[in-house]
Design brief:
about 30% strand, six-stranded mixed β-sheet, 12 strands, about 20% helix, alpha+beta, 2 domains
């Protein structure tokens, strides 16, 4: 009887730890880092590197649209969202995010860039941020701005874990722009899957539960005293 109670308690503990790890994985976005790029780090936007938000004309592949915003004069703030893409419409599941800056103002600041997903909705449902840059980085100071290639790279995004029913959207806000418009675009990247911290928690919880369950099953049942 004691052994059966221990097994039930251990199973409940394992389920609770798994739920906590899953909720952490869903709730905490992965941080993107804003890194200044060299002239050859990422090529210019085009059919193989499609735009998601841009104030210029991008040669995107057929069927993959982008938000073509209008920039003119000294506008205090831009707050733009890409179209909503089904996961099947994405040209690749792992990619770097490039930012092509054409502003003539050194004080231009990227407030945030986010990758959001609706994991099982219709594309207009409950979007959650899974990758995020938020650091008010000065992007107007790039030495090679206006060259047509990426002036900044926001790191690598990996969407391989998403199911076939998922939808994706990109949001960006930047301030202090002046002169030419900016472009946010995707460039294919080869990455090795790295487990997130919550995944390690889940793995450790499963291993601990399995170990304790094994010990509980091996423990001899207690016998009443003669």
């Amino acid at each position: 009887m004691t052994s059966m109670r221990s097994c039930r308690w251990l199973r409940s503990l394992a389920c609770l730890l798994a739920m906590v790890a899953f909720q952490q994985a869903q709730a905490v976005p992965i941080t993107l880092e804003l890194v200044q790029a060299g002239p050859d780090t990422l090529g210019p936007p085009g059919a193989s590197s499609p735009c998601v938000i841009a104030g210029t004309r991008c040669q995107n592949p057929a069927g993959f649209g982008y938000t073509n915003y209008v920039q003119g004069g000294n506008i205090e703030s831009f707050d733009e969202s890409s179209p909503v893409y089904s996961i099947d419409a994405m040209p690749f599941r792992t990619f770097d995010v490039g930012v092509d800056v054409n502003s003539a103002r050194r004080g231009e600041t990227l407030e945030f860039f986010r990758v959001l997903v609706d994991r099982d909705g219709s594309g207009g449902g409950d979007f959650k941020t899974i990758y995020e840059y938020s650091g008010a980085g000065r992007i107007g100071s790039a030495a090679n701005h206006g060259a047509g290639s990426a002036d900044w790279v926001l790191g690598t995004v990996d969407l391989r874990s998403l199911g076939d029913s998922a939808f994706v959207r990109f949001d960006a806000r930047w301030t202090g722009a002046s002169g030419g418009p900016e472009s946010f675009y995707l460039s294919a990247a080869d990455v090795t899957a790295v487990a997130e911290p919550a995944t390690f928690v889940l793995f450790a919880a499963g291993m601990l539960a399995a170990l304790l369950l094994n010990r509980a099953h091996r423990r001899p049942a207690s016998r009443p005293a003669p």
